Amino acid sequence: MADPTLLNVEKLSVRFPSDRGPVEVVHGISFAMGAEKLGLVGESGSGKSMTARALIGLVAKPGRVTADRLTLDGEDLTALTPRQWKHWRGSKIGLVLQDPKFALDPVMSIGRQVEEPLKLHTAAKKAERRERALAMLEAVGLPDPLRAYHSYPHQLSGGMGQRVMLATTLIAEPRLLIADEPTSALDRDLRDQVLDLMLKLVDERQMGLILISHDLDQVARFCDRALVMYRGDIVDRLPASELVNSQHPYTRTLWACRPSPETFGTMLPTLDRVRLEAGA
Amino acid sequence: MSLVDISDLNVTFRDQDVGRHILRGIELSIGDGETFGLLGPSGCGKSTLLRVIAGLNRDWHGSMSLLGQAVPPRRRFTGKLRQQVQMVFQDPYASLHPRHKIGRALREPLVVNGLDNPDKRVAEALAEVGFGPDVAGRYPHQLSGGQRQRIAIARALLLRPKLLLLDEPTSALDMSVQAEILNLLVTLKARFGMSFVLVSHDPDVIGHMCDRAARMAEGQIATTFDRAALAAGAAAAR
To answer: Where, by residue number, does the polypeptide cross the bilayer (chain A) (predicted)?
Structure first.
């Protein structure tokens, strides 16, 4: 394991109140990570996105986050006030979401959106902000950074939008990047391109990356370690390259349920939820 | 017999007085009992082609016959075609009316087509996709994405179609739920003797499901694949 001091999570829980009493969607999970690439996999509803939101202080009310310990770079996140969170988000932890169509502000130019974290978190002057934004747009592989700088989100394709989102997140040089299904809104051919780019930038900056995905193959190819979530618990932890050999029935089914030309004419394995719940 | 016969099909959209050629000279023939795949990047025209076959886009040129019946352009489907060609859409969130309960959504095609015993048929259709009859009293927002897609499939099957058109039926779903839906489609196809046209941008899904497939690019069919080519992974190659 790499240096495990970047992020430390102990007994993290997320609860929502309901008519029938509180519902716990993340059940006291613990993990630690350094400047490495960690994959968080599971089905929708398994709690992986809620975990990410808890780490970045974005669990909406009336949801409640509790943890015995939650530290980033040695600093305690559980004690942050909303005001302090505002400073942490963006400058220490960045979040890339699934769909640039919804995550970028439609009425703000790309340049302003990429510069915004600098405005909020640094003392950089206007000219410097512009220069750094243009450099960032170039770093994320936009062919004409100046043109992108003056564009609006609707003028960009999905792949370009996702690159812009990456630029807005990385420009303030956070220590940890959380990418929540960053490529599932993209065409297949674009997915690997965007992930390759993301990994390159993360490596260059020696950041930590949490890649949330329901695509195990993607995590196996791009991450160092994987945590597998099911119904709010981490049920399996293993090196990402070992996902294919996992002995856990849930992980095995998630891996084996991928269709392919070889599975033609056969039934794909599906989750035996009754058995899984009996085992849990 | 071919279920679908399309020759020299063209579709143009007017965009601010400039004609945009969406489909150019499509030639396509799909046999009875076949699963035919259409793949290609966004904007290549695959969904438009599917909407022409579904009778949703009637503004086209060329010739088309479905289930042996010639279909003229600019006309609504008549007679049996209205029941025998059905479609399942990509987004299970948008394809069900948010304020209609599931039972109402499923009764609608029955009422429109004047079929008897709607309640019994709805209960049967729900059972076919693995639900109990009580789901009829729920609203779409009370169901998950995979459950909604099963409802959309149940709705399409109510009229016992011969040809089921599937527009990215699993691309909004998790891998594990995708497996459940694909299995369901394969099972129902065998049980009811249907043919499928499956649009997907995922070559793995096409390779798993299809007997034949075509890759589209810029409104044309660029390559066609038979089963041997699909088995060899040709659909995934660029």
So the answer is: none
The alpha-carbon gap from A265 to the nearest alpha carbon of chain B, in Å, equals: 7
Say yes or no: ipTM exceeds 0.95: no
A-chain residue closest to B211, CA distance: A264
Comparing A99 with B67, the larger pLDDT belongs to B67
Going by pLDDT thresholds of 50, 70 and 90, the confidence category of residue B237 is: confident
Over residues A161-212, the pLDDT tens digits come to 999 999 999 999 999 999 999 988 777 778 888 899 999 999 999 999 999 9
Residue A2 CA to residue A205 CA, distance in Å, equals 15
Burial A236-251 (b: 16+ CB within 10 A, else e): bebebeebeebebbbb
Of the candidates A189, A263, A270, which has its C-beta nearest B180's C-beta?
A: A270
A37 within 8 A of A199, measured Cβ to Cβ: yes
- Summarised one tens digit per residue, pLDDT across range B117-140 is 999 999 999 998 888 889 999 999
- Give the CA angle between residues A117, A123, A127 to the nearest 5°: 80
Is some CB atom of chain B closer than 8 A to the CB atom of A248? Answer: no
User: pLDDT of A198-213, one tens digit each?
Assistant: 999 999 999 999 999 9
Residue A118 touches partner B, C-beta closer than 8 Å:
no
| Residues on chain B touching A274 (C-beta within 8 angstroms) | none
DSSP code, position A16: E
| B170 closest CA partner among B134, B201, B141 | B201
Least CB-CB distance to B175: which of A187, A214, A267?
A214
What is the rounded average pLDDT of the residues B203-221? 94
Mean pLDDT of A122-143: 93
What's the angle, vertex CA A117, arms to CA A113 and CA A118, rounded to 5?
110
**A217 to chain B: closest CA residue:** B175
Contact between A276 and B219 (Cβ < 8 Å): no
Q: Kindly tell me if the per-residue pLDDT of A2 is higher than 50.
A: no
Residues of B with CB under 8 A from a CB of A: 41-42, 144-145, 174-180, 182-183, 186, 201-205, 207-209, 227, 230-233, 235-236, 238
Dihedral over Cα of A241, A190, B153, B103: its sign: positive
pLDDT, position A43: 86
Q: Can you name the CATH fold of B34-47+78-231?
A: Rossmann fold (3.40.50)
Residue of B nearest to A258 (CA): B175
Distance, CA of B4 to CA of B6 (rounded, Å): 6
Most A CBs within 10 A among B35, B42, B176, hence the mutation to make, goes to B176
